[in-house]
Amino acid sequence: MATAVTSTVSFPSSKSASLPSRTSIISPERISFKKVPLHYRDVSVGGRVVSVRAQVTTEAPAKKVEKESKKMEEGVVVNKYKPKEPYVGRCLLNTKITADDAPGETWHMVFSTDGEVPYREGQSIGVIADGIDKNGKPHKLRLYSIASSALGDFGDSKTVSLCVKRLVYTNDKGEVVKGVCSNFLCDLKPGYEVKITGPVGKEMLMPKDPTATIIMLATGTGIAPFRSFLWKMFFEKHDDYKFNGLAWLFLGVPTSSSLLYKEEFEKMKEKAPENFRLDFAVSREQTNEKGEKMYIQTRMAQYAEELWELLKKDNTYVYMCGLKGMEKGIDEIMLSLAARDGIDWLDYKKKLKKAEQWNVEVY
Ligand SMILES: Cc1cc2nc3c(=O)[nH]c(=O)nc-3n(C[C@H](O)[C@H](O)[C@H](O)COP(=O)(O)OP(=O)(O)OC[C@H]3O[C@@H](n4cnc5c(N)ncnc54)[C@H](O)[C@@H]3O)c2cc1C
Ligand SMILES: NC(=O)c1ccc[n+]([C@@H]2O[C@H](COP(=O)([O-])OP(=O)(O)OC[C@H]3O[C@@H](n4cnc5c(N)ncnc54)[C@H](OP(=O)(O)O)[C@@H]3O)[C@@H](O)[C@H]2O)c1
């Protein structure tokens, strides 16, 4: 029997941009998927409802599946589009998802692909900004983790979404410098073209096992691949995947005004309280009992025993994405935990990596 999909997404944006209302593209302020019969679901954005065809939605068995290397997984496409011949998509919507008083801006954007950029949850795409560099050459591509599930935010497998932080910094000479591609993307208006390469990457592909424990560690825009995982787990119905394990997300951001996709994650928690745990580490507002800054690893340390027990299971998978610095901090926590059991963490981590249970993409 066909089943239902329910989710509500709202972007707390003050400066959002979308195509004019006469087009079929809708304001990004609110996207919600409502229960519908058969293979269609209603996508309501900005108060208007559009019916889109959903995936076939038969019940899937939630039993543990045999481990298979994600590097060998069939049907994963890499490098379909290269810089010399990129796919040219269009921006469908672009909205700021951090509040005005947040330190820095992060934007959520959706591009059309017409189904021509087939990607899996956990992959990235390249973007080539318009214009030329200081040598008069086209800009080099920059990589961005895909923030939508393979079905895309509109459920029709014809879009790809990104979560991009606008890079602005002051250099040694006191000049304000704007990052080329992040500013190009954050300024992109609906209807504008965007050159896309890829998709790329296999490190962050999801485990197939629907009973797995998936621990997701994100700082800032490192949330992107996990939004993609979590949509597949909790907002969609698939005939070959029905998540029934434990998803545990730790998200580290500087301020509560920079929390990303909070409403979506809370909605997921409401839908599946037994299968989803959600912990935020707000570094500039929270501290631990010793008064130390609340980084993601500081939050994890509060659940040290539980995390360590989970890590001993052969179907627990850890994924880390975001700032490079977080890896060291997390290693320090794990080192002390493992030592209590007389285990050398670095050795243990090597084994986990080999078994594809420890997956890292930091930059
Ligand atoms: C696999 C992967 C996935 C990624 N996913 C995402 C994502 O999902 N979202 C996202 O926002 N980003 C992501 N990034 C980062 C992204 O690729 C770009 O690096 C980022 O957007 C900056 O690019 P830019 O063109 O704006 O900056 P550029 O014009 O390339 O400028 C960046 C350069 O500026 C300099 N610089 C930067 N900060 C400072 C500073 N504070 N002081 C002095 N110099 C500085 C450094 O030399 C740096 O190399 C990802 C990177 C990788 C490798
Ligand atoms: N696939 C990938 O490789 C990938 C994907 C997406 C993003 N990224 C990268 O991830 C980074 C995310 O940055 P952002 O600007 O989006 O994040 P952000 O909003 O600045 O948030 C980062 C959070 O991490 C904290 N932090 C700083 N140093 C840390 C450390 N050593 N250990 C743990 N936490 C630490 C920050 O705290 P304070 O600021 O208070 O110190 C802040 O709370 C970018 O560099 C982006 O390029 C990589």
UniProtKB/TrEMBL annotation:
FAD-binding FR-type domain span: 84-206
Reactions it catalyzes: 2 reduced [2Fe-2S]-[ferredoxin] + NADP(+) + H(+) = 2 oxidized [2Fe-2S]-[ferredoxin] + NADPH
Pfam family, one: NAD_binding_1
UniProt keyword terms in alphabetical order: Chloroplast, Electron transport, FAD, Flavoprotein, NADP, Oxidoreductase, Photosynthesis, Plastid, Transit peptide, Transport
UniProt binding sites for NADP(+): 145, 165, 221, 253-254, 283-284, 293, 322-323, 361
EC number(s) recorded for this UniProt protein: 1.18.1.2
InterPro entries on file: FAD-bd_FR_type, Flavoprot_Pyr_Nucl_cyt_Rdtase, FNR, FNR_nucleotide-bd, FNR_plant_Cyanobacteria, OxRdtase_FAD/NAD-bd, Riboflavin_synthase-like_b-brl
Start-end of Low complexity biased regions: 10-20
Keyword Plastid: yes
GO CC terms of this entry: chloroplast
Superkingdom, natural source: Eukaryota
Main subcellular location of this protein, as a coarse class: plastid
Chain spans, region Disordered: 1-20
BP term (GO), one: photosynthesis
Listed cofactors: FAD
Keyword Electron transport set for record: yes
Family that this chain belongs to: Belongs to the ferredoxin--NADP reductase type 1 family.
Name of the protein this chain belongs to: Ferredoxin--NADP reductase, chloroplastic
Record organism: Juglans regia (English walnut)
